[in-house]
Write a sequence for this structure.
């Protein structure tokens, strides 16, 4: 009884030419990852698939270089004067969150900068410029107006509704 056996014969090709070319391409183009380098290798006629390129990429210790962060010139901000009494300066800003059902809601907060007292909080799914004006009018009737109201440059505070109502001086900040 003659026995026969079948042995696995590897079909793996020599990786050295592909490995060398991959290293050279990675040196030429440091912003390319293994996928884009694989495309370049295939264009040059190397029969490689993505898994092989990734294996060689990792074995050679090649990594996509981290981008250097661009320095952005700082904007000169106006420093608001220090408050010495209540009702000199208020801050207004919006906050937002999402309910468990996925619906968003927003809140308008108005705070006295000296006492850190929350003067008004309006919460709704939609807060228009008219609602902001109504909240400020209510505060004007109950507390009087401050000398300055500090706001950011958001679209809620740059609308026409706020421009029509004569409040104290508005001090915008770029945040």
């Amino acid at each position: 009884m003659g026995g026969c056996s079948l042995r696995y014969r590897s079909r793996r090709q020599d990786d050295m030419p592909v490995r060398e070319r991959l290293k050279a391409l990675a040196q030429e183009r440091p912003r390319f990852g293994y996928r884009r380098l694989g495309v370049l290798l295939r264009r040059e006629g190397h029969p490689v698939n993505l898994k092989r390129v990734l294996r060689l990429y990792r074995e050679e210790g090649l990594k996509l270089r981290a981008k250097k962060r661009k320095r952005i010139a700082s904007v000169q901000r106006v420093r608001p004067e220090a408050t010495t009494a209540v009702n000199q300066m208020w801050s207004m800003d919006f906050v937002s969150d999402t309910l468990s059902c996925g619906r968003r809601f927003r809140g308008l907060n108005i705070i006295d900068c000296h006492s850190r007292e929350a003067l008004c909080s309006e919460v709704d799914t939609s807060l228009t410029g008219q609602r902001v004006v109504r909240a400020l009018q209510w505060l004007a009737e109950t507390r009087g107006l401050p000398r300055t109201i500090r706001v950011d440059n958001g679209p809620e505070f740059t609308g026409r509704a706020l421009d029509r109502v004569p409040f104290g001086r508005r001090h915008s900040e770029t945040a």
Observations:
- The chain has two domains: 16-59, 89-173.
- The chain has a mean pLDDT of 83.
